[in-house]
Design brief:
The chain has 61 residues and is an all-alpha fold. 77% of the residues lie in helices and 0% in strands. The chain is built from four helices and no strands.
Amino acid sequence: YREYMNQYRIALIDKRLESGQFTLKQIADEFGFNDESHFSHFYKNNMGVSPSFYSNLKMKD
């Protein structure tokens, strides 16, 4: 169940990152992380790259 929820959260987070309309702080706050550092750690552990790297990559597409 936890893995499913993490995948669901990542999918929603990816949409925010891809839109380019939200800061990492805004996304971290929306998804209940204490700060950007905890959010970045969660994202990198699940995706293998930092959220800022993913966002920059998608903005170039």
